[in-house]
Amino acid sequence: MAEDGNRIVKDITDNNQDAIFVKADVTQKSDIQAVVDSALTTYDKIDILYNGADIHDGYDNAVELEEDFYDKLMAINIKAPYLASKMVIPHLSSKVSVLLFRSQIALVVANMIVNHKKSPLLN
């Protein structure tokens, strides 16, 4: 939400800190790339990736859960953290870097990323 993003940036900058807002749909690869590009253009590096977007199915069972909502659930909770991590990891600083995953489901993605032999997090 642009209004919330701009309000948060204002709160941060009013406290003499630096912040930017980039409106993005986390299910869209091009939007995530735009966020990464904006961060790199503004700050020249990325130290932290916080994967905090997630939605919940309300404990619906397979019969109750609509396929469209299931697709949205997977796109936000699984694919988005994967895409963000894939795009950010090559740019993480070599000294101190942090990947945070808010969603329990996204921990599956985190384990896949961190346990990969070529992960820069293991260097």
Automatic annotation (TrEMBL):
Keyword list, A-Z: Oxidoreductase
InterPro entries to which the protein is assigned, alphabetical: NAD(P)-bd_dom_sf (IPR036291), SDR_fam (IPR002347)
Pfam families, per database record: adh_short
Keyword field contains Oxidoreductase: yes
Family: Belongs to the short-chain dehydrogenases/reductases (SDR) family.
The protein's name in its UniProt record: Short chain dehydrogenase
Organism this protein belongs to: Psychrobacter pacificensis
